[in-house]
From TrEMBL:
Domain OmpR/PhoB-type: 124-221
Species this chain originates from: Pseudoalteromonas peptidolytica F12-50-A1
Stated name of the protein: Two-component system, OmpR family, response regulator
Keywords from the named record: DNA-binding, Phosphoprotein, Transcription, Transcription regulation, Two-component regulatory system
The organism's place on the tree of life at top rank: Bacteria
Transcription found in the keyword field: yes
Modified residues (4-aspartylphosphate): 51
DNA-binding region listed in the record: 124-221
Molecular function, one GO term: phosphorelay response regulator activity
Domain Response regulatory, chain residue ranges per copy: 2-116
PROSITE patterns: OMPR_PHOB, RESPONSE_REGULATORY
Length: 221
């Protein structure tokens, strides 16, 4: 999961970013509406955490512009505004949920997980593919109910591949999804991690395989 946090309070934005990273996901920060637009044009995000009180443009207008482009990106509003009308207006413009400031970070993460559920493969916090299950909250992988030990990066890669099962996923797409912008990794980090995941799945008799399409990417079958 890659999340865009658009919040003009740098300290709060970094706090949210760190909390999301602890769950194995990537997050970028925009301080203004202009930066929000620039990042959304440069990257593909799975969710947007949006403060309404931005310095250069009202967050409600940001929502309006996103939805005018027929962009269905899940949007979670953060607001210190006490007016119920503002919250209603945000939801009517196309936001998916809202959270009042101050808020509990665990609630924010739970609301993000709820926005990202996919009915076809997601039940509660569980992603499944064949006999492999991934608990997106506990960051735990099991095969036929037996725990499979994986590192944070391995779990994040496997989650992305399960969410895109049957589709070819390029190495660049994995980098974009897993690592926040500016995060330094070695050139073969994805390749090494995928190799480890494949070996662990094979040793646990998983009915799920990661196939490498040389020069193209990976596909989970």
């Amino acid at each position: 999961m890659r999340v865009l946090i658009t919040e003009d309070n740098q300290q709060l934005a970094e706090f949210i970013q760190q909390a999301i990273a602890q769950d194995g996901h990537a997050a970028d920060i925009a301080i203004t509406a202009a930066q929000n637009t620039q990042l959304m044009q440069s990257w593909q995000y799975d969710a947007l955490v949006l403060d309404l009180g931005l310095p250069d443009k009202d967050g409600l207008e940001v929502i309006r512009e996103i939805r005018k482009q027929q962009n269905t990106l899940p949007i979670l509003i953060l607001t210190a505004r006490g007016s119920v009308d503002d919250r209603i207006k945000g939801l009517d413009l196309g936001a998916d949920d809202y959270l009042n400031k101050p808020f509990a970070i665990d609630e924010l993460k739970a609301r993000l997980r709820a926005l990202l559920r996919r009915p076809s493969s997601y039940t509660a916090n569980l992603l499944t593919h064949n006999n492999v299950s991934l608990d997106t909250k506990a960051r735990r992988v099991t095969v036929c109910g037996e725990n499979l030990t994986m590192g944070k990066t391995e779990v994040a890669i496997l989650e992305y591949l399960i969410r895109n099962a049957g589709l070819t996923v390029g190495k660049d797409a994995l980098y974009d999804a897993i690592y926040a912008m500016g995060f330094e990794v070695t050139d073969n980090a994805i390749q090494v991690a995928v190799h480890r995941i494949r070996k662990k799945l094979e040793s646990s008799n998983a009915q799920t395989t990661i196939n490498t399409l040389r020069g193209i990417g990976y596909i989970l079958t």
